[in-house]
Design goal:
Rossmann fold; 83 residues; flat; two-stranded parallel sheet; single chain
């Protein structure tokens, strides 16, 4: 899911509640920078949360089933230094 799609209130063509959108954006803000954590993001979408958590120094692993999102994750891996 692209972050912009969440703001527009749709995910895979289905409506998304404002509450879900708020929680989606809040995740990187509530995870502290210290201590450094090992995090598994199952259903990683386009990697928005991963990129924010990696910027805080966390060791983040993504799991994703949707081919389009895997493509986005691979592109982000090269731009944000993920492995």
């Amino acid at each position: 899911m692209k972050a912009l799609d969440a703001l527009e209130g749709r995910h895979f063509g289905k409506p998304v509640s404002e509450d879900l959108v708020e929680r989606y954006w809040a995740i990187p803000q509530i995870v502290p920078r210290d201590p450094i954590l090992r995090i598994l993001d199952a259903g990683a979408g386009d990697g928005y949360i991963i990129s924010k958590l990696k910027a805080k120094g966390h060791d983040v692993t993504a799991m994703e089933a949707a081919a389009i999102n895997i493509k986005h994750l691979k592109e982000k891996r090269h731009t944000c230094g993920s492995s």
